[in-house]
Amino acid sequence: MNALGLLRDVKELKRLKSELKKEKREKFVSVCGDTGCSVWDSKKVDEVFRRVLEEKGLSEEIPVKSTGCLGFCECGPVVIVFPEEIFYQKVNEEDVEEIVEETVVKGKVVERLLYHDPREDKKIVKASDIPFYKKQVRNLLGDNWLIDPGSIVDYFSREGYAAAAKAFTEMSPEEVINEIKEARLRGRGGAGFPTGVKWEECFTKNVENKYIICNADEGDPGAFMDRSILEGNPHSVLEGMMIGGYATGSNHGIVYIREEYPTALEKVKNAILKARETGMLGENILNSGFDFDITVSVGAGAFVCGETSALVNSIEGKVGEPRQKPPHLAEKGLYGKPTVVNNVETLANVPRIIRWGAEEFARAGSKNSGGTKIFSLVGKIRNTGLVEVPLGLPLREIIYEIGGGIKGGGHLKAVQTGGPSGGCLPGYMLDIPTDFEELDAAGSMMGSGGMIVMDYGTCMVEFSRYFLSFLSGESCGKCFSCREGIYRMLEIVEEVAAGTATLSHLDLLEELGEMVKNTTMCGLGKTSANPVLSTLKFFKGEYLAHIMENRCPAGVCRALVTVFINQELCSGCGVCRKKCPEEAITGEKKEPHYIEKALCSKCGICIESCPEEAITRA
Amino acid sequence: MKTFCHCNNHYGLENSSIILFMQNIQRNCGYLPEDELKRLADNTGTPLMDIYSIATFYKSFKLEPQGEHTITVCTGTACHLRGSGEVFEEMAAVLGVGSGGGTSEDGKYTLEKVNCLGACALAPLIVIDGHYHGNVTPGKAREMIEEHYKEEEKKESKKVNMIG
Amino acid sequence: MVILFGFTLNGFEVLAWENMSILEVAGFYGIEIPTLCFMEGLSPYGGCRLCLVEVGPVGKSRLVTSCTYPAREGIEVRTHSQKVLQQRRMLLELYVAACPSSKWLQDLASKHHVTEVRFKPKGEECILCGRCVRMCREQMMGEAIGYVDRGTQRRITTPFDKKSEDCRLCGGCMYVCPVCQLRCQGPKEKSTLCSSCLNLYPPCAEKFEEVMCYMDPCAACELEKG
Q1: N- to C-terminal Cα distance for chain B?
Q2: Interface confidence (ipTM) of the complex
Q3: Is residue C106 within 8 angstroms of chain A, CB to CB?
Q4: Cβ of A493: how many Cβ atoms within 10 Å?
Q5: Nearest by Cα to A404 from A74, A69, A124
Q6: pTM, whole model, 2 decimals?
């Protein structure tokens, strides 16, 4: 089936789906085309697959799908062969011929490309048997394996737009809102506000020209869930927006996407065009009487525009300064009209709720939040990637059962959730369930789902310095308490890192943190002290070591650290001497070398280049 | 019910925003020249002050001409933990620009930071002219620039040979 | 028809009508709330955070800027609770540290019993209250100055940091500035906000039909002339 015509009503949609079912290809190859894997030239792998299958005359029978993120980024480029679901990792162009010959044609497995489970010490064939995937409940990301994001046909064949059809033709807006409420769907962007309630507030406003906005300004460093949904399954977000538009009475949806995601932007634009072609966007969709269309607004590089009122200001062409509330956006939002802003992941969950029903959806989840949540598991973790689990699963399970534990065999020191608005939790708190309230109570927050794992090579003082430095540039700067508060907190933490702080500085830091939390207007300011306050609470010892002993236990803070060469291990090869950009290393050939402290900039180039691993920081 | 398809250009973009016009100017000129912004102010009736505020508020806008090649270092948390700070410093040293980034004296390279490109599994990540490179260390970064320079020199000398 | 409604202010039942801010109502009842960025005749901004008051029942309250927060039926407001006073003092401490040479800030701080400043003095001359920007825009119908950059780098200046063609040298911005109010920039000052201390015959007199100007003749300039 090539070009699709306009679908004029539900009957035509149903007919299309049954036709697609008949034509369904059981055999196909999914090659991860996400930005992540593309760094390892997954695009070339994709090209070679297509070429080889073409040469063998198999390209009609066995399509190649250039998919979105398949989740297990550690193993990229990832290729999954269906219907057997054979998972191949770190695939190169040179491996493609063999995979086609052996697996696609003969149905045999290429052993050397299989995933090796270090715990059971065996190779695993099927993707869903791999421990990383086994414990996940991949309601949202599961489809990424099976569909080509550029193809609306693929989306239709996966029950695409069935939920929108049901909502527009069989349900009233109130019924839709109720379903979302019963599903206990809460905002996945960070605040966790109940989506059904948000939609209801906008629905009750009897005003023309309301708006529903998809917040795709995923600014949290370390988070890429939204990017992966937009690149892997953009139609799911569009469908969610349409249903939201129906429920709130808005005919105009806007996707606000950050400028740093060019691929996601292309995929979304393409999806919108395809949806319009098939009549899923536009006037009188499926003859339901409901009009809806979506446009795209691109960000210009501001983390604060993830805050909903700043986002609205940005769409209006102003600087991204958050607005005072009241009035709330549901009352006076974009261009002064009632507006609803939802996160990408929140919207992607909506079609499922309508298709399965609230009860089924909420089955995976906790008492006060239904459904699954996607976390981006990064940092010093063995299995880096995107993890989708039911809300309420303890952190420990995510990090050890799914994440495979600490990379390099070290020990977990802390896990940070919630990005720059979140906090760091120590190892002994890993039994906390991933639940909005529980994480808040512990001193962190769910945030958008970034989960950063740290081992003992991370300095918590440096970590809070990093976040404060980030926020000092990203704050809009309007509120004195946020601007000045962050400046002064950063000043103090920098002194701690430099070894020039005193004990009274720590009390001052806490006071400042409380002040910023209480007196600032928007979420960015209010949560800006979280990283520093949580590290102070749980890792005070480290701060004290910096202050009282002039020592950085993790060996990170430059002012308190020396790089030195272990004289016993040094073979005198001279590699470090040649590579040192400061020419700070001296030594004769075959004699132990020596670093001149005064010249050393502690850049670490010598450490990485030493073949004997004789150079360390302490 | 009204349609508003008329308000979309064929990219499907909101076109009521001055930010969109500025993004277009930057796409065409590589940066935001002062006189272009003045023209924009006159044409749209927007105060020049507002345009300048927007140009300096949003970090994707550049008010200076950029180098031939752009090197962007991701400073997201995952990249930072794996040493992107050191990578940036090393590149700044090689290119002779300050600790905040900038353009090299010969105008060939602009070095800049960006807050998280969302490819955290490949930390530290750098982007050179739109091509992503992962797992970069300070040593590798230095080599990359040196190689790039050599490649460029080769291209230049080829050009000269063809002309001369 | 004017609609009156009631709410609680510092334990007392007070009345207000629509579109009044808490600051206005408090002022009406004689309660003084310190402000910096607020000025009669200019739109409220809410940036200085000094006018914060507590809204909501004890234990479930939050601090909001009284200059921008609308008075509403039934709310509970406390302008001088411990929480509010504590935060005001910390804010003033930070203000004085940011801008130690300002008499206004020093006075406000000492009125609140701020006796020590535990931060390194910055010696800045601007606290970004924005009065000058709003004065220029709203009262002087000018578009000469505004905010640039963001976060800790935010500052107020003219487009491209160059002399603005829009600027009529009226001096309104200097007149309303709570920090530089008693210090003259002088005719030799290289600052782009104001390049002259006006004398009796304003430089813009020939350019504009009406001169909306607030500058008194400056003694220093007059003396310099000899």
Answers
A1: 67
A2: 0.88
A3: no
A4: 28
A5: A74
A6: 0.90
